[in-house]
Amino acid sequence: MTEALHFLSLDSDLYARARALLDPEWLAKDAELAPVMPVVLARGVGQDWHKAGTFRHHLVGVARSLALWQQPREVRLLGLLHSVYGNAFVDLVKFDPARERARLRDAVGEKTEELVYVFCTASRAQFIRQVIAGQIESDGSVVLQDRTLPADVVAAFTVVSMADTCEQWFSWQEDIFSTFPDTPHVPQATHWMAALWPGPMRPPSRIYAQISRLGAALQHPALKDRLPMPPVFDHCRQTLAPDAEAAAAALYWSVATQNQPLVHMDAAIGTLEHAVRLNPWVGEAQMVLAQLYLIAGRRTESEAAAGSALQCYSAWGNAWDKRVQWDAWFAWARLLRQGARQGTWPERLDKLNNVALTPE
């Protein structure tokens, strides 16, 4: 018997917080982050390439998730500044750690600057390996080769690592960095197709399982109450199996690339429904499913799927499928939910070009 399909309920408070962050000027209105942004922008972060966008795009995206997750000031600032001293994964040194720590300290305060410095200089790879393996001491500390991170730092680094990873990961990075957090040694000349940026822009198929295990580590008794729990994966109470993530991504992509029978939509609907069963924690498969339900006249199911997609978008603050940015996915899901509620979805293809969102 096929497992029943369950959609997530839309949390009205979380949804309201996410909608506020759709404003492109949200960072300029944040009283604690706004004064720091000009200091970073002056170092050219808006011109630097970084994974699926620019370095500014990445830093703001990480800070957006942390703001959505209601993290305290020092953690949100850590997200905004998390690589400015460079690190083992990123050569973008925006502040020289040998000469300019005082400059950053003046901008953000001693405690936050110290967090940023340690985040950039400690072994991120070793930290992530140990946290997902459950190698956390009874007091919440993590012992690395060159230092011991206390519980408050472990909690902050775990939350920021979750936001950092979800913001930037897509298939190009997955292919060239295939064994993360270990460093792969794959010759570029042999695997030249994987090197061609940005590649096919598939969503990731193996990293959200890792993010879920980072989140689960926050349930450690010495870490659990140190920071607000991110709302992803049922407030970090659930984990995603790697094989389920990979299968769900493949199923979603087969529909997204129209590798399905195009005469009847039954196969596409069934494929997406199974993808959602395997991975209910990202919104894109549910959003596409909502549109297919709506076309098929299944308005009640469409509204449920669109609401569940919005819950996922509201929980992450970043897109899983990075062909389109988070705010655009969010906007289309809202349109689908509106269409399901009002029964106004266009019947002609050309009319899709001018659907409009009405005030909620």
How are the SSEs ordered, and which strands pair?
Elements: H1 12-20, H2 37-41, E1 49-50, E2 53-54, H3 55-68, H4 73-81, H5 101-108, H6 110-121, H7 124-132, E3 142-143, E4 148-149, H8 151-168, H9 171-176, H10 192-195, H11 208-217, H12 232-236, H13 242-256, H14 266-278, H15 284-295, H16 299-316, H17 326-342
Helix pairs in contact: 1-16, 3-4, 3-8, 4-6, 4-8, 5-6, 8-11, 13-14, 14-15, 15-16, 15-17, 16-17
Task: Tag the structure with descriptive keywords.
single chain; 360 residues; mainly alpha; Hypothetical protein af1432; 2 domains; two-stranded antiparallel ribbon; 17 helices; 4 strands; 2% strand; globular
Number of domains as seen in the coordinates: 2
What structural class results from the helix and strand content? Answer: mainly alpha
SS strand fraction: under 5%
Helix segment count?
A: 17
Main sheet: strands, sense, barrel: 2 strands, antiparallel
Shape: globular
Query: Mind telling me the CATH class of the largest domain?
Result: Mainly Alpha
Protein described:
This protein has 360 residues and is mostly helical. It folds into two domains: 31-239, Hypothetical protein af1432, CATH 1.10.3210; 241-278 and 282-360. 51% of the residues lie in helices and 2% in strands. The chain contains 17 helices and four strands. It has helices at 12-20, 37-41, 55-68, 73-81, 101-108, 110-121, 124-132, 151-168, 171-176, 192-195, 208-217, 232-236, 242-256, 266-278, 284-295, 299-316, 326-342, and strands at 49-50, 53-54, 142-143, 148-149. It has a two-stranded antiparallel ribbon with strand order 1-2. The protein has a two-stranded antiparallel ribbon with strand order 3-4. The model has no long low-confidence stretch (mean pLDDT 94).
